[in-house]
Protein 1
Amino acid sequence: MSLSLKLELKSDKKVLVTNSETNEQQEVTLGFLQQITRDSLLMLVQYKYYELIINAEQHWNRITKFNPETEKIKELYIEQKVRDIMVNDRWLEITDYDREMYHKALAWIDLSNPKKSNNNIDKTAILAAGSGAVTGALASNSIGGIGVAAGGTAFGVGMLGLATMGTITGLAVYGIGKALK
């Protein structure tokens, strides 16, 4: 019989982990367990019980080294970082590469627009594009980048790419709304 880890979710976001071979038990936090398994453990959250079989021995070794004080310090640090981002309005920080691509896109738009003094700008279109861009950036900020694989090749899409897709989607919704009027 191979090692498996039986997980039981407690009410205070703690997880009781039982080693199936030795019946040893260790209580850890859900966040720690999600971090070491690199899994959301959605089934555990939904059903309160779960069993880990894959890489169980590796996970058990890390679980036995769990230190609640260290985890508390990590949680406080993350909470402080989030609070700092929210208080200082830095929730949409982007990388230098994304910022450079954004400025290149703005320069391209400026060059391709022959009418620079057009006062008939539809503010609804700008609102749709802006809302889409913010939604895309927020999606990137909360879930991270995404990967696209097609035809034997793959590439990553970061914050700028998701913001651009959001902008396009926002403008598409705007266009559909205008077409239906």
Protein 2
Amino acid sequence: MSFFSSRRAILKRARKAVGSLNLTAPSSIRAKVGLTDQDIFGHMTNTRYNAFALLALEDLLIRSGTKAAATNAGAAIKILREDVVFVRMLKFPDSFEIDIHLARAENETLVFEHEFRKKDKLITTGAITAGIVGADGATRSISSVLPDLAIEPPSVAGSDPTKLT
């Protein structure tokens, strides 16, 4: 299956499940390296790693309702940076899973961490930094958009969110 066929299937599933996931919950997608996803050395290209990581993020944003909420609030999520560390390489016809989660929300950015795994072996790890921009293209702070996006901060086990320390 090519990347584009995988993308179509994954996003179709995501659109059917809008609101089924909180943005702070971990999410995963499964895919397979296609024949056209590899370079002349038989490894999946760096571009495809980036594309699959962004696809996992898009799946999370759609299923959590964040993408629609941002659009309704007159904002959009903009990718600012992606970092990847390769541990092993994937090749045709490997099947793999990408796990992604919101690692932290900073003043003007959301940082998502992702891992590519093949049969529970770590293949690649990385982070995607995203910002939120308004319709005018100006950066918006996370705190000004959090209510619009209905993002709940991750809870710490055993802590009482009503008490400040």
Protein 3
Amino acid sequence: MSVDGVNTNAVSSSFPWDSTTNSPQLMLALLEMKLAETNKASAMEGIKNIQDTNKEKELVAKLLNEARQSKADAKAKDTTTPMSKEMIQYMDSHKLAYDKTGNDYIHYSDEWDVAITSLQSRLDSLGADTQTKMVQINDYMGQYNSYLQGANSQISKANDALTTIVRG
């Protein structure tokens, strides 16, 4: 059974009721289930955001390694090495700094330092963002569990009241 988008099958199997009940305990249980579902949805959205951030972190780590290797290659050969198109596109789209000496994308060893610093800062920022999101998800899940426990408690109280009435 679903009431206002909340799946009530979990509780309906333990307590026979419908959405037209006037029981305050069951109405409170429905409210708590709705709040639990909202927190669960927020946690799931946060998890998706973390997954997206992790994909970006993988790309930034790859670009950072590429920049470090390009710096090492430029130093070893005492020449320039070019930025990849992927690196240029990522850095431009995220407004990350890189050396623009000569108005080109070809760098000597020491010119790579700007790009490496920018990519490292971006990677650190993404890591901090992930940690913040994890704290938020943990909070949402704690609230979810609390609301479910409250709903179960209200259903139990309603069940006890009905049992008392039936037994007289």
